[in-house]
Amino acid sequence: MTIRSVILGTGSYLPEKIMTNKDMEAIVDTTDEWIVQRTGIRERRVAAADQNTADMAIEAARQALHAAGLQGSDIDGVIVATSTPDTTFPSVAVKVQAALGVRQGPVFDVHAVCAGFIYALTVADSLLRTGAARRLLVVGAEKMTSILNWEDRTTCVLFGDGAGALVLEAQEGSGEIADRGILSTHLHADGNLRDILYVNGGVSSTQTAGHIVMEGKEVFRQAVALMADVVTEALDHNGISSADIDWLVPHQANIRIIEGTAKKLGVELDQVVLTVDRHGNTSAASIPLALDEAVRDGRIQPGHLLLLEGLGSGLTWGAALIRY
Ligand code: ACO
User: Fold this and answer.
1) N or C: which end of the chain has fewer CB within 10 A?
2) pLDDT tens string 218-267
């Protein structure tokens, strides 16, 4: 008998305000054509000034609970992946806990930027498989627009706000690849690459939140290589080939990085869940947002094999293979 962490329900939330590339043209020296051609992004959502990361996380988590047919009191803990918390402390996760009536812990945030959701999934999976919890809410939520330099056209056109969530439950399985649940996760980091993508502020340094600074070309180069490596690692670990994958659910940073990973895998683009055109890069929220969209529109069906992957500042990166 093997314990697997099975997805019971998914949810997501996007702020109402849509900001198109045309809107961006009025703010910085850019064009719709440049943004679409280099990134695949056409528009992104922007949270209201008084709408914080926790507000979006709570809505996404509420939807995931509803999809699972559960209430907050049925959940043993909350893990939120975010780099844009409302306050330095307490965590976004405790706000989700209080709002949804989750009565116990563990409740905490995970900070691994765009790989944050894969990191949070891995921690949740570990807690579930060791019996420390039976059901967990895992959320990715970001207000990226609050750390953008709106005068820097090389970064401000890339990011958006939103949240995605899922409910995981520990279930007994036979240990076969056909079992539902998380089959494996694979995490990596290389702190020597921290200077190619960072935020130039923080509590102990400047006492400000800071803004995103990025060497786009170098991040792009690393992302294409490292994403290809980690998806191969996930397949090899499970003794399967890319032909077994039903859906690639990648972090949505840039269509060209996603195309590169799909090509390396030999997966057609119509097997890739794409939201980057409408959401931009929502960092830790992008994978669960994409997952929820494809579950709700019926593309992802029970039994499908999903490959999730993402890379972010740190650099941090990872992948997860999940039987939905
Ligand atoms: N509009 C118009 N022109 C622009 C813009 C813009 N928004 N931004 C840059 N340019 C200009 C540059 O100034 C440069 O002009 P120059 O040739 O006169 O100097 C030209 O366009 C080319 O710029 P590059 O940086 O070489 O463009 P590139 O093709 O590399 O695309 C991009 C830039 C889209 C940022 C790309 O490098 C990329 O996607 N990088 C990866 C980003 C990423 O994946 N981040 C993921 C992690 S995010 C996280 O963890 C929070």
Assistant:
1) N
2) 999 999 999 999 999 999 999 999 999 999 999 999 999 999 999 988 99
Return the ligand 1 atom nearest residue 114 CA. Answer: 50
The CATH T-level fold of domain 181-323 is Peroxisomal Thiolase; Chain A, domain 1 (3.40.47)
Task: Classify domain 2-173 by CATH number.
Answer: 3.40.47.10
Average per-residue pLDDT for the chain: 97
* Under 8 Å between Cβ of 297 and 58: no
**Which residues form the pocket of ligand 1, taking CB atoms under 6 Å from any ligand atom?**
30, 34-35, 38-39, 113-114, 153-154, 157, 197, 216-217, 219-220, 223, 253-254, 257, 281, 283, 312-313
What would the two tokens of residue 295 be? 């579950």
**Helix 32-39 × helix 255-265 angle, to 10°:** 20
- For 122, phi then psi, to 5°, come to -65, -45
Two tokens, residue 114 = 């765009």
Closest CA to ligand 1's atom 5: 154
Q: Tell me how far apart the alpha carbons of residues 249 and 268 are, in angstroms, rounded to a whole number.
A: 13
Q: Once rounded to an integer, what is the mean pLDDT over residues 191-197?
A: 98
pTM of the model: 0.97
Type of residue numbered 204? S
How far apart (Å, rounded) are the C-alpha atoms in residues 287 and 282?
9
- In the chain, domain spans: 2-173, 181-323
How do beta strands 212-214 and 197-199 pair?
A: antiparallel
CA 153 – CA 264 distance, rounded (Å): 30
Residue 156 a catalytic site member: no
Position in ligand 1 atom list of the atom nearest CA 281: 48
Can you tell me the mean pLDDT for 106-127? Answer: 98
Q: What is the identity of the amino acid at 234? A: A
200 flagged as catalytic: no
